[in-house]
């Protein structure tokens, strides 16, 4: 377990050491979230590095990463805990069978003890939120609540309670409270507005597309072997694409994928042929691809330096 960063620079260095290149405002948000022990709410377009922050923090701080992937219909049985009903039934059947084999034993089955037994930890399946509140050998874990905008409002209200007090109630046991709260990262792609009350519990940061300089640094961190001239061209092209009216502009994830694809094709530089052939790595909507392929791509290629 590594100590928490003691400054904004230390937070940026910690992320950087694990391949995450961030601007100062994000490093500040991370530093404050860790220092003030508040959840960090990251909102932004797809593929800009929201989820990656949690992974990198867990690796950098030597903590376990516990991920709750949100989706419509997510319920407490999948997010918090559930009883292992088949095992509970088996325990009851075994007790009954033992009783039938030995009539005296039947009289001895203590219903209270059996009930206590089948509601013991052995029969409880802890899901991410409960696991995040339990003690961990290497310190409080990083809890990633990913894509919270996909859940429905009742679950969001439940999350609000968990994030307020870091406690969960299991009726058969009572209230379980984290001795040390986990480091919480909540992400949203803003497919719908998340309730103010939940955001208020958190520090908020909008993760934007990187500028050309930072995107070049990300590319250098993730693909150190790539020729400088090609990576400059890749970044310039992607940055220009983001300035067009596209249905879905490429994120950092797509830039990295494109760099990998061009390397796999042994491309030395961008040209009309390799751009047109690989647009599907960058753009995921046919209308976007059709709009860029050909003339637009040629125009963007002709002005790579201007876009940097
Ligand atoms: N600042 C960065 N430094 C290094 N790599 C980055 C950075 N931002 C994003 N990446 C890389 O981009 C990819 C996508 O990042 P990530 O999955 O975190 O995006 P996201 O914002 O969670 O996207 P989505 O909304 O689609 O889930 C990852 O492979 C990650 O390594
Ligand atoms: Mg994500």
Please tell me about this protein's structure:
The chain has 308 residues and is α/β, with parallel strands linked by helices. It folds into three domains: 8-79 and 127-207, Rossmann fold; 82-124, no CATH class; 212-307. Helix content is 52%, strand content 13%. The protein contains 16 helices and nine strands. The chain has helices spanning 8-17, 24-36, 50-61, 76-79, 85-101, 103-108, 111-118, 128-133, 153-165, 196-200, 212-222, 228-242, 252-264, 272-282, 286-292, 295-302, and strands spanning 40-44, 65-69, 81-83, 124-126, 142-146, 167-170, 174-177, 183-188, 203-207. The strands form three sheets. A five-stranded parallel β-sheet has the order 2-5-8-1-9. A hairpin with a 3-residue loop joins strand 6 and strand 7. It is elongated. The model has no long low-confidence stretch (mean pLDDT 91). Magnesium ion binds at residues 50-51, 146, 187.
Named once each, the bound ligands are: adenosine-5'-triphosphate, magnesium ion
Helix content: 40-55%
The first-level CATH class of the largest domain is given as: Alpha Beta
Overall pLDDT confidence: 91
Number of helices: 16
What structural class do you assign from the helix and strand content? alpha/beta
Question: What is the rounded distance between the termini?
Answer: 40 Å
Look at the structure and name the CATH superfamily of the largest domain.
Answer: P-loop containing nucleotide triphosphate hydrolases
What is CATH's topology name of the largest domain?
Answer: Rossmann fold
Main pleated sheet: 5 strands, parallel
Q: What is the domain total for the residues?
A: 3
Uncertain regions spanning at least 5 consecutive residues:
none
Query: What is the overall shape?
Result: elongated
Strand content: 5-15%
Q: Give me the CATH architecture of the largest domain, please.
A: 3-Layer(aba) Sandwich
State the total count of DSSP E strands.
9
Strand arrangement, largest sheet?
Answer: 2-5-8-1-9
Helix/strand order, N-terminal first: HHEHEHEHHHEHEHEEEHEHHHHHH
């Amino acid at each position: 377990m590594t100590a928490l960063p003691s400054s904004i620079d230390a937070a940026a260095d910690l992320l950087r050491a694990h391949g995450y290149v961030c601007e100062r405002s994000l490093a500040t948000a991370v530093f404050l979230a860790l220092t003030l022990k508040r959840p960090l709410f990251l909102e932004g377009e797809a593929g800009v590095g929201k989820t990656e922050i949690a992974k990198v923090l867990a690796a950098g701080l030597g903590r376990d990463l516990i991920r709750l992937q949100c989706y419509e219909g997510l319920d407490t049985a999948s997010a918090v805990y559930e009883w292992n009903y088949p095992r509970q039934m088996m325990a009851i059947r075994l007790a009954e069978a033992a009783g039938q084999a030995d009539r005296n034993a039947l009289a001895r089955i203590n219903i209270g003890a059996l009930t206590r037994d089948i509601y013991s930890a052995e029969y409880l399946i802890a899901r991410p939120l409960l696991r995040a509140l339990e003690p961990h050998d290497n310190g409080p874990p990083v809890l990633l609540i990913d894509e919270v905008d996909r859940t429905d409002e009742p679950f969001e209200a439940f999350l609000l309670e968990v994030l307020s007090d870091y406690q969960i109630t299991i009726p058969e046991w009572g209230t379980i409270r984290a001795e040390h709260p986990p480091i919480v990262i909540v992400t949203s792609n803003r497919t719908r507005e998340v309730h103010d009350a939940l955001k208020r519990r958190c520090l908020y940061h909008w993760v934007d597309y990187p500028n050309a300089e930072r995107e070049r640094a990300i590319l250098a961190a993730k693909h150190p072997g790539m020729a400088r001239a090609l990576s400059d061209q890749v970044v310039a092209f992607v940055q220009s694409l983001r300035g067009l009216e596209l249905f879905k502009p490429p994120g950092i994830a797509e830039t990295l994928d494109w760099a990998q694809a061009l390397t796999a094709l042994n491309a030395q530089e961008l040209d009309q042929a390799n751009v047109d052939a690989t647009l599907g790595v960058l753009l995921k909507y046919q209308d976007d691809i059709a709009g860029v392929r050909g003339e637009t791509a040629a125009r963007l290629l002709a002005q790579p330096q201007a876009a940097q």
